């Protein structure tokens, strides 16, 4: 679990990122989860946008992606979901220590 301090740090890092994936009419599927998981391994932090035509609620989408990719949900802001997952091979971000 991420602490508030770590989430603030990740939000500041995610601020300048553009969404890489879009969740649309089809909602979340296995293939998308696999791609997002691979992308998280490469970049650790990413934004995903939930399109207007998505049938699922953005909170459900965030939950499905978080659980499917075994990632941490940093925030949902508007229709943008920010996910973080520590990379095994490609570690770039150093989180603030938990006290």
From TrEMBL:
Natural source organism: Bacillus benzoevorans
SMART domains: CRS1_YhbY (SM01103)
Pfam families the record matches: CRS1_YhbY (PF01985)
UniProt superkingdom: Bacteria
Keywords: RNA-binding
Descriptive protein name: RNA-binding protein
GO molecular function, one term: RNA binding
Record has Secreted as a keyword: no
Family matches, as PROSITE patterns: CRM (PS51295)
Alphabetical list of InterPro entries matching this protein: RNA-binding_CRM, RNA-binding_domain, RNA-binding_YhbY, YhbY-like_sf
The CRM domain, residue ranges: 1-96
């Amino acid at each position: 679990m991420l602490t508030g301090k770590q989430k603030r740090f990740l939000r500041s890092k995610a601020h300048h990122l553009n969404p890489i994936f879009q969740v649309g009419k089809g909602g979340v599927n296995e293939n998308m989860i696999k791609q997002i998981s691979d992308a998280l391994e490469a970049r650790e932090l990413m934004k995903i946008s939930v399109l207007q035509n998505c049938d699922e609620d953005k909170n459900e989408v965030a939950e499905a992606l978080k659980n499917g990719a075994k990632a941490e949900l940093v925030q949902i802001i508007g229709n943008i979901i920010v996910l973080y997952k520590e990379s095994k091979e490609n570690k770039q971000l150093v989180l603030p220590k938990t006290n």
